[in-house]
Amino acid sequence: QVLAPTPVTPSPTPTSSYPSGPYVSAEEANQVIVIPDPPAPPAFTTRTDCPHFASELLDWHDPATWDGLVSPGPGNNVVLPENSKVLVSSSVLDIQGTITVPSSSELIFGEDTNGKIEFHANGFEVNGALVAGSETCLIEYPIEITLHGTRPADVVTNPPVDSYKGINVGGSLQLHGKQFHRTWTRLAKTAHAGDSVLMLQHPVNWEAGQDIILVTTAMKDSREWHQNEVLTIDALEENIPIGVGAVVYLTSPMAHTHLATYAYQAEVGLLSRMIKIQGSSTDSEPTDPDPGTCTYYTDPAYDGSNRRIYGNSDRPCPNTKLTGYGGHIRVHGSTSIGQIEGVELYRLGQTNVLGKYPMHFHMIGDCPSCYFRHSSVHRSFYRCVSIHGTHETHVTENVAYDVTGYCYYLEDGVE
Question: Model pTM greater than 0.90?
């Protein structure tokens, strides 16, 4: 057995700065559909079966690991040694080419107790296993994998190989990040513009420095006009008033008011996770952004007034935001398995490119041991989780925001 690292907890803040009640508790909230509460995670215990603490691991950073092979380096296509377990224990900042993991090998990400492990590559071809943590050894320190690659002009009709700007798995994908519970909740009290504190309905173990999404309660919510806010946690209150699950202080005040009435309360979701897989900031964003200058036409039938939706006349400009080209993850084939938990997928998905989604379970067949849970998908350029020809896979307790296209996608409709 291996003792777990001491978890980082936010420092408490004095109790006098949050608003007084009454509050809308989770029990009092009015819902037409009752969403069952997720089970509480097990108490923090000693971690076991940590892959990065196993014996006979080869060191990615040791030149001897690559004797007779192409060594890691900028743009190099690297193939792991056969019958090996290679450990990444610190950052790899040079952008590698494609990393190939043979069927007999494993690429294992460890933990850097002094900070974050960053890894940059054009893609991964995983015939063996790509591993970070295990179900009994959740990763406690940040890992950030960044996928690089520009969008080809003919990508829709002639897409590149699946490992290009992707993690293509024909073996095993095991990503197990720390569980944050709950992944989302609702406001217990209206949060006004200018406030920098949120009263939540449920207890959470979120941490200072993490990003959250506070969902709009305005009547219009669209890409060209919305009042959703991504905010950063400053601290959590230790002394919680009765009727409230958690009190979260923010690093900056809110720009808009978000309601919590007995009829409806704004949702609050956690975006940050300990393991993050993202598309590069330099080549993922659309090159055809919406200029935000389009409005609905003037209609003489309405006395010359502009068409409006809930008082707003903005509309999306046509033929824009069609070139987003983030990374993607694909687990495919009848012998493959994907177990992903506590992971943040950011700037993934490739707009209008078939099969290139943030998380894609593809033609696996029955896979009751496959799952995507306790995770987040945001700033996605094409869907969230696609399940195609794969059955009995669990997708649960996730948060998604700012997504192009259908988010949770049953591709054949029979999965």
Answer: yes
pLDDT at residue 257, rounded to an integer:
98
Count how many Cα atoms sit within 13 Å of the Cα of residue 55 in the half-sphere of its side chain. Answer: 0
How far apart (Å, rounded) are the C-alpha atoms in residues 206 and 85?
A: 33
pLDDT digits (tens, 9 = 90+) for 365-387: 999 999 999 999 999 999 999 99
**Which is it for strands 343-346 and 184-186: parallel, antiparallel or unpaired?**
unpaired
pLDDT attached to residue 28: 80
Say whether 212 sits in a helix, a strand or coil.
Answer: strand
Residue 15: helix, strand or coil by DSSP?
helix
- C-alpha distance from residue 252 to each of 20, 59, 106, 196, 199 (Å): 20, 42, 43, 6, 15
Q: How far apart are CA 336 and CA 320, in angstroms?
A: 37
Cis before residue 22, ω within 30 degrees of 0? yes
Return all residues near 249 (Cβ < 8 A) that are at least 6 apart. Answer: 13, 17, 196, 197, 233, 234, 235, 236, 237
Residue 404, pLDDT above cutoff 90: yes
Provide mean pLDDT across the span 268-283. 98
Residues 6+ apart with CB under 8 A from 395: 371, 372, 373, 385, 387, 408
Which strand ranges, in their side-by-side order, compose the sheet holding 246-250? Answer: 184-186, 267-270, 211-214, 229-236, 246-250, 197-200
In contact, 225 and 53? CB cutoff 8 Å: no
Residue 100 contacts residue 125 (beta carbons within 8 Å): yes
pLDDT of residue 5 exceeding 80: no
**Phi, psi at 106, each rounded to 5°:** -135, 140
CB 163 within 8 A of CB 123: yes
How do residues 159-171 score in pLDDT, each as one tens digit?
A: 999 999 999 999 9
- Count of other CB atoms within 10 angstroms of residue 213: 21
The alpha helices in 179-255, defined as continuous H runs, are none
